[in-house]
Write a structure and sequence with these properties.
This protein has 377 residues and is an alpha+beta fold. It contains nine helices and 18 strands. It has helices at 2-54, 57-63, 88-109, 114-126, 197-206, 209-220, 232-237, 293-299, 336-376; strands at 68-73, 77-82, 128-132, 135-146, 149-159, 164-169, 241-242, 249-250, 256-258, 263-265, 270-273, 278-281, 285-286, 291-292, 300-302, 309-311, 316-322, 325-331. Strands 3-4-5-6 form a four-stranded antiparallel sheet. The protein has a two-stranded antiparallel ribbon with strand order 1-2. A hairpin with a 2-residue loop joins strand 17 (316-322) and strand 18. Helix 5 (197-206) runs antiparallel to helix 6. The radius of gyration is 41 Å and the shape is flat. The termini are far apart.
Length: 377
């Protein structure tokens, strides 16, 4: 009993400390907003003064309405936009928020931990303590139904130090429901708070955990058809299988199994290779060749002339002689005529060289004969 009492006291003191720190952080945020608002107003006043002094009628016309100011953009030149921070009403509302947060800070300094302790004891009477470090409780919202659609029993996990709430469905297989635990709870167990998030965080920060528990209970038993993660129709009928690439869910008939990623792909995330006649992920598809990258790597060759890649069947073989050694290169149809002309010119040069070779050799021999005879004389 003493251990439980000391634990409750410790958590209550931490709640008060955290609440005080959060109020101080909110105060600093409001002060920063006031500073930015004053800077924006001074800037607008300078622009108005400059426009009046220089007679810039264009700027005066743009700045005549409250809140309108000018910005210079490297792309659009001078443009007009509405800046709420330049309006007196905005600064007045910030000052009112500052006065309110200062009142809350004074109250928090003098707050007793007794109300938070009592709230925690009430919470522990209704929920199970699953962890002391960090302190965490859980409870079950049983037999949830939304508009006559059975959702199941929902386990709620609440961390007392930090604002973390997770909800898990223990009654139904949620795989065919996209992993959603509830029409308003995603696959990670996070609640869509809607307009209630500010109130939920305020309850948690102030240590009013019983009020937070009631809020969660009401949210899980309420269905908002305008903003569900999953509609009640899809909850009943299922939402299909998730595409491996984009994660969106589709009926099984709209998905195709692909071997290159070993997963199902939707129409937007897959491409068909006519060469190997297989579907592949769009990231593994070469649009220049209208084929998958694997086929391009195996069957496309670089042209020996222009250096571009072509299908191996689209290249021509050209016999050439490199340093009097016969060889062959593969060139595209555009490069083939020019290479053929160059090779013909090379052959003509080789033929000319062969014809001149004997004459050159004879002339050289004649010179040697004359020279030798001169030496003999």
């Amino acid at each position: 009993m003493a251990s439980t009492a000391s634990f409750v006291r410790e958590v209550a003191l931490r709640v008060l400390e955290r609440h005080s720190l959060s109020l101080q952080a909110e105060k600093q945020r409001i002060l920063e907003e006031i500073r930015l608002a004053k800077r924006s107003r001074r800037r607008r006043e300078r622009l108005l003064q400059l426009a009046r002094e220089k007679g810039f009628q264009f700027c005066l016309g743009r700045l005549s309405s409250p809140g309108m100011t000018l910005e210079r953009s490297p792309y659009y030149g001078v443009s007009t936009h509405y800046d709420q921070r330049t309006t007196p009403e905005h600064e007045a509302s910030l000052n009112e928020m500052l006065r309110a947060i200062r009142r809350e800070i004074r109250q928090a300094r003098n707050a007793s931990p007794d109300p938070v302790e009592a709230n925690l004891r009430g919470l522990l009477d209704e929920a199970e303590l699953v962890s002391k470090k960090p302190p965490e409780v859980r409870w079950v919202v049983e037999n949830v139904e939304l508009q006559d659609v059975w959702i199941g029993d929902l386990e709620v996990n609440l961390t007392l130090d930090d604002f973390r709430v997770h909800v898990w469905n223990h009654s139904v297989d949620t795989d065919d429901k996209g992993g959603y635990q509830h029409p308003h709870v995603n696959g990670e167990g996070n609640i869509c708070w809607g307009d209630n998030e500010t109130a939920a965080q305020a309850y948690h920060h102030s240590g009013d955990f019983l009020a937070l528990k009631d809020l969660i209970h009401n949210l899980l038993r309420t269905y908002n058809g305008h903003s569900p993660y999953i509609t009640l129709d899809d909850w009943i009928n299922g939402v299909g299988t998730a595409c491996y690439e984009c994660g969106e869910r589709y009926p099984d008939d709209d998905l195709v199994w692909t071997e290159d990623i070993e997963g199902y792909l939707c129409e937007s995330c897959r491409s068909y290779c006519d060469r190997c006649q297989k579907y592949v992920c769009y990231r593994h598809y070469d649009r220049d060749f209208a084929a998958c990258q694997n086929c391009v790597e195996e069957h496309a060759i670089t042209c020996g002339g222009c250096g571009d890649k072509f299908w191996e069947n689209d290249l021509e073989t050209l016999e050439v002689a490199w340093f009097d050694q016969p060889s062959a290169i593969l060139v595209c149809k555009d490069c083939f005529p020019e290479f053929q002309k160059q090779e013909d010119r090379n052959e003509d040069l080789h033929d000319t060289a062969r014809l001149l070779a004997p004459a050159v050799d004879g002339s050289a021999n004649g010179q040697r004969t004359l020279f030798d005879g001169h030496l003999a004389a």
